[in-house]
Amino acid sequence: MARNLKYSMYALFTVALASLCIAISADAPVPVDAISREFSAYVGQDSSASPVDAISREFSAYVGQDSSASPVDAISREFTAYVGQDSSASPVDAISREFSAYAGGLLAAKKLADSEILYELPLVVTAVWDGFFYAQDEMRSGGIRFASSAPVHPGDSIRSAGTIQTNADLERYVQPTRVAVLKSGARPEPLTLITDALGGGDWFYDLATGKGQRGVFGSYGLNNIGLLVQICGHVTSVDETANTFTVWDGSSITAADGNNGVRVWAPGLTLPNINELVTVTGISSCEKVGNNLYSLLRVREAGDIQTKVQ
Fold first, then answer.
1. SS3 call for 43
2. How far apart are CA 272 and CA 81, in angstroms?
3. DSSP-assigned letters across all residues of 234-293
4. Which of 41, 145, 149, 296 is 20 to 30 Å from 176 by CA-CA measure?
5. E-assigned strand segments in 76-171
6. Which CATH entry fits the domain spanning 191-308: 3.90.1640.10, 2.40.50.140, 3.50.50.60, 1.20.140.10?
7. What's the pLDDT score for residue 11?
8. In the 8-state DSSP scheme, what is residue 155?
9. CB within 8 A of 191, min separation 6: which ones?
10. Residue spans in the chain of domains classed CATH 2.40.50.140
């Protein structure tokens, strides 16, 4: 009876896992295959083996570091309930949830609700300020803010765990529980954008739940909040008190202060003059004014503002 129950549970899990593997893309990370392979060995050979140990062993090899810093613990908890025949617990749901951010990167992570857990995000640091920094994936498909004073520098490759949150300006960010620097490397190159593409449109934004990333007013295209970018245009306004200036390239975009262009935040730096032609590098961010969300480019250092001779 117990033997039949065991194999019935495995058959059910195998069908569900196959569905999960199809649902994740063809280039899904190795751990999904590793789990499937380990479970085949687990059921077909050693009946005394632990599926949690099998997963932990595969993760240790895959991540190349302490498995306690990976999704193993969360999956272990789910499997403990599952093996204990808790019908409300699903190992497939657990794996799907814990790998959602890992398999899909930051774009998938931003689709989660506030306070949901993120594991093992592999990123490259792009900018650092007092109390927070930004990092993005190597393919530049997504970037995000970290509420952390961890000792990181632009170009550092990191892995982090934590929770996804939203600040008062509706920008998604990570509240990390762990930031590990794997190596230092070259600083990432910025992605060049026209000013009305800075920020971009909504990314699976849900007003009711706060999931996704809200797009900015007057912008369009893929959401790029959190990415290291570069824009070019004429300076249309300067506010020394707020440490900001506005850059416009002729696009149909208006900054939060009502001037043509997008606002640039450059604390402690020398600001350009009105009508100067500039190239500016920084982090695509946002600011909420009233009910609207506007683009905000965060400059890191003096070299990010280049004045062009006209």
1. helix
2. 61
3. EEEEEETTTTEEEEE-S-S-B-TTSSBSEEEE-TTSPPPPTT-EEEEEEEEEEEEETTEE
4. 296
5. 117-129, 132-136, 143-146, 157-166
6. 2.40.50.140
7. 42
8. T
9. 140, 224, 227, 228, 229, 230
10. 191-308
* Residues forming CATH 2.40.50.200 domain(s) in the chain: 112-183
Q: What pLDDT, on a 0 to 100 scale, did the predictor assign at position 106?
A: 76
Q: Which two tokens stand for residue 15?
A: 């069908």
> 305 near 278, Cβ under 8 Å?
yes
Helices 30-44 and 91-109, packing angle to 10 deg? 170
Rounded distance between C-alpha atoms, residue 62 and residue 140, angstroms: 23
User: pLDDT value at position 7?
Assistant: 41
135's CB contacts (< 8 A; 6+ apart) are 123, 124, 125, 126, 143, 144, 146, 152, 158, 160
- What are the average pLDDT values for consecutive 10-residue runs of the chain, which has 310 residues? 44 40 38 47 49 50 45 50 50 48 67 86 93 93 94 95 94 94 94 94 93 93 95 96 96 90 96 96 96 96 89
3-state secondary structure of 63: helix
Give this prediction's pTM. 0.69
The DSSP call for residue 195 is G
DSSP character for 231?
E
Q: Round to whole Å and give the CA distance between 273 and 275.
A: 6
CA 267 from chain centre, in angstroms, equals: 25
